[in-house]
Amino acid sequence: MGLFSNEKKVDYDKIVDKMLPDARKELDESQYDTELGLNMARDARKVISGKLKIEDFHKVYSSSLTKEFGNYYASETPDTKKKSDGPKWAMVIDLKKCVGCDTCTVSCKAENRTPPGISYNVVMESLEGEFPNIKAVNLPRPCMQCDKPACAQVCPTRATYKMENGIVAIDNDRCIGCRYCIVACPYGARSFDFGDSYEQEMVGYNDVTSPEYGKERGNREKGKTPIGTVRKCSFCFHRLQRGEEPACVETCIGDARFFGDISDPNSVVSKLAASPRAFRLKEELGTHPNVIYLR
Amino acid sequence: MSNLAVDLKQKTTSKTKINLEVSKAFKIWISALTIAFLIGGYFIVERFITGLAATNLSSITPWGAWIAFYIFFVGLSAGSFLLSTLIYVFGMEEYERVGKAALFTAIVCMIVALTFVLMDLGRPERLLNAIIFWNVTSPLAWEVHFYMVYIGLLTAELYIAMREDLVRAAKMNTLKGFVARLITFKNATINAATKKRDHMWMKILGTIGIPLAILGVHGGTGTIFAVVKARPAWNTALFPIIFVVSAMVSGTALLLAMYIIKKKVQKQPIDQGMVVSLSKMMVGFLIIDLGLQFYEYLIGWYGLEAEHLDSLATMMASEKAWSFWGVQMFLGAVVPITIVFWKKTSQNINALLAAAVLIVIGIIGVRFNIVVPPLVVPVFHELPWGNYAPTIKEWMVSVGVVAMGLLIYSFGELLLPIEETSDEVSHNGK
Fold it and tell me: Of A125, A154, B265, B347, most Cβ neighbours within 10 A?
C-alpha cells in the first residue's frame, strides 16, 4: 500500500529534537557545572546500553560530584551484587486452610497440559489418629524447588539444574531419559513422559502444549520432546514470566497457598516462613526445600 | 550367512575329524543364537519405535529389568576381569587356562551392559550427552566415563595377552591366521625381550585395572544406587562393597561354567584340579557376600524406619518374595554351597557345573531384588505403590541383547586365539 501513496514521511526524530530542551542551555541556567552534567549524561547512556559498568561510572565521577555537591552527595558505588540477584521464588502452603479439594491438582493439569500418568501437583490425603479422634490431613505436594536438589546432583547431563530465581529447571532438549532424577527425588515430584495422551477422550488435546520454561513447542507428537524425558512442576515459570502467579496458587479456593520472593524480608512468604508453624518436608535430608508448610 | 562361509573356510583348510564335529556343534549354536537375536531384534526395533511405553515401568518404579540386567552384566565383567588379574598380576598360574577367556568375557559383558543401558534410555539418541555435558557430581556420568576407559584397558590387555598366539597364528593359512595378519604388525616376533615386555605390560595394565574395576566400574555402579538418599534401602556405605563382592561371585561362576561347558562340547579333557579350586573360591566369595548382606538387612531392619522396613518387606514377604527366597537364597546360595562342600558332589564336574550355573542365576535374582523392591515402595506413604513385573517385550528385548553378546563372544572365539593354545605349542615356541 505504502508504495503508491504520496504521503511524505514524518521525521519523528526531528520533532523530538525540537521538543527536547537544549541540555547545555538548561544546565547553564543552573548553579552547577555544565560540563560535568553533560559528561555524566553521556556516560549514563553508556551504562544503560551496557558499554560502561556502573562501578566504573561511580569511580569516574565520585570525586568531582563530592566537590560539586558537597554534603548533598553521599552515595558510594551501590552494592550491585545484592540488587542483581532478583527474586527467589518460594511457596507457602497453609495446611490449616487446605480443604483437600484438589483444585490445585486440576488447575495444574489444565495449565501445564500434563499427559495421563503425570501430575506435577498432588494432594496427599491421610487420616491421623484412631476413631473417633481422627483428623484428616491434606498435604499438597508440588515440586519443592530445593536449594540443594538431589535431582540436579545426580543428573548425568546437567539437564536439570537450579536457576538463579530458585526454580529447579529441566532442559527437556538435553535430557536423555535415564530417570536417575526420578529415583533420587525424595518427594516423588518427577515423572517420566511415556508419550500417553488424552486425545482419545478429549478431541484436540494434542494440538496445544504448555509453553513450559517459556518454550513454545507446538503440538504434542509421537517421539517429540518432551516425550521420552522427565517432567515436573516449574512453579509455572511461563506464568511468572508474564507476571502471574502459579496456577495452583491462583486457583486455591481456601487461599491456602502463598507465592513470592523469599529473599525479600518484607514479602508475605518471608513473613509466613518465619512463623513457628512453618516446617518443610523431609528436612533431615538436607535438600532445603523452597515450599514451606504451615502446620 | 557368515557362519556358513566360516564353515566352508574351515573345511577347505582340511582340519581333522574332531574339528569338523566341533564346527557342527558350533553351527547349531550359532543358528540358535541368530534366531534368538532376530526374534529379540524385532522387539528391540519395536521398543525404539514405541519408546518406553513398551515396558511396565512407571514414574513410581522408573527402573526395572533392563537396569537389573545392566548391573548384572557390569558385575560379570568386573568379576571376570578381577579373576584374570589373579592370573596376570598375582601370578596364580593354575588358572591360566581361563585367563584370556576371562578378559574377553569382561569386554563382551561390558558391551552387553551398555546395550541394556541404551535400551533403557528414554532418549537413546542423546546418549552422548552424558559425555558432552558431564555433570561431575553425578555417579552415573562418572560411570559412563569409567566404562569407556575400562573397555579400552581390557582391549589393550587382551591384545597383549593374545599377542604371541596372534604372531604364531599369522603364519598359518586359516581364518584365524587371516584375522591375525590383519591385527598384527608385519615385523612382530616372539623372543625373550618381547616376552618380558608383554609380561610387564600385562602386569602394569592389570594393576591399573584392579582399582579401576573395583572402585570405578563396579563399586561405582553400586555408588549409583548407594548415593540415593531418597531410598533408604540403597543408601548405605556397605552397598558398593556388596556390589563388588557379588561381582566376584558371579564372575567366577560364569567363567567356571563356560570353561566346563566348552570343554564338554569340544570333548577335551577338563582340568579337574582347577575346576575344584575355582569352585571353592567361588563359594568363598559367595559366603562373604551373604555375610555382608546379612548385616545390611539386619541394620536396616533394626532401624525401624518405615520406608526401609517396607522395602525389606516387599523383598522378603510380598507375593514376589519367591525371587528373594527361591532364586537368590535357595537356588543361588544354599544349593551351590551344599554342592561344593558335600563330599559326594565336591569332586563331581557335573555337580560343580550345576552349582556355577545356579550361582549365576541366583545373582540375576540378587540384581532384580536390588533394583525393584526399593522402587516399589513410594517415597511418601500416601502416594500409590508401584507394581512392576517385566512385560513380554522387556524379556524379549533382554533375550535379543544377551544373544547379541553371545554371538559376539562366539565369533570372537572363532576368529581370535582366545582359547588357551595347547601347552606343546607354546613349548615348541620357546
Answer: A154
**Structural domain contains residue A2:** no
* Total of domains in chain A: 2
**A183 and chain B in contact, CB less than 8 A:** yes
Say if B368 falls within a structural domain. no
Residues 112-131 of B with CB under 8 A from A: 117, 120-124, 126-127, 129-130
In a domain, A102, yes or no: yes
Q: What's the domain range around A71? A: 16-79
- For residues A82-99, one letter each, b for 16 or more C-beta atoms within 10 angstroms of the residue's C-beta and e for the rest, the string is eeeeeebbbbbbbbeebe
- The predicted complex's ipTM stands at 0.87
CATH code: domain of residue B114: 1.20.1630
Q: ∠ CA B246-B247-B249 to the nearest 5 degrees?
A: 60
Check A285 against B229: CB less than 8 A apart. Answer: yes
- Select from A117, A157, A182 the Cβ nearest to the Cβ of B130: A157
Confidence (pLDDT) at B271: 85
Amino acid at B50: T
Residue in chain B closest to A190 (alpha carbons) equals B59
> By the 8 A CB rule, do A256 and A55 touch?
no
A7 within domain boundaries: no
> Over chain A, what is the mean pLDDT?
88
Band of the pLDDT at A239, cuts 50, 70, 90?
very high
- pLDDT > 70 in chain B, percent: 92
> Which residue on chain B is closest to A139 by alpha carbon?
B382
Are both A284 and A155 inside the same structural domain? yes
Cβ neighbours of residue A60 closer than 8 Å, sequence gap 6 or more: A43
Query: Residues B70-104: pLDDT tens digits?
Result: 999 999 998 888 888 887 777 777 677 778 888 99
Q: Which amino acid is at A140?
A: P
B57 to A156: CB separation less than 8 angstroms, yes or no: no
Nearest residue, CB atoms, B135 vs list A150, A155, A223: A155
Task: Identify the burial level of B150 via C-beta atoms within 10 angstroms of its C-beta, where 0-12 means exposed, 13-18 middle and 19 or more buried.
Answer: buried
Question: Residue B266: which domain range?
Answer: 18-278+390-421
pLDDT score recorded for residue B209: 87
**To 5 degrees, how large is the angle CA B4–CA B7–CA B11?**
140
For residues A75 and A215, membership in a common domain is answered with no
pLDDT at B425: 36
Task: Return the pLDDT at B14.
Answer: 41
pLDDT digits (tens, 9 = 90+) for B162-192: 888 888 888 877 777 788 888 887 777 788 8
Residues B189-247: pLDDT tens digits? 788 888 888 888 888 888 888 889 888 898 999 999 999 999 999 999 999 999 999 99
- Inter-chain CB proximity A150 and B228 less than 8 Å: yes
User: What is the total count of domains within chain B?
Assistant: 1
Q: Verify whether the Cβ–Cβ distance B140 to A182 is below 8 Å.
A: no
Residues B243 and B221: their CA atoms lie apart, in Å, by 8
The rounded distance, in Å, linking the Cα atoms of B401 and B45 is 12
Chain B CB contacts of A194 below 8 Å? 51-53, 57
Query: What is the chain A residue with the closest CA to B130?
Result: A157
- The reply to whether residue A176 touches residue B120, judged by beta carbons under 8 angstroms, is no
Q: Nearest-CA residue of chain A relative to B382?
A: A124
Q: Which positions in chain A touch B380 (Cβ < 8 Å)?
A: 124, 141, 187-188
Residue A142 in any domain: the answer is yes
Give A160-206 pLDDT, tens digit per residue.
999 999 999 999 999 999 999 999 999 999 999 999 999 888 888 89
Is B89 contained in some domain? Answer: yes
Cell (9 digits) for B403: 544373544
CA dist A193 and A203 (Å) reads 20
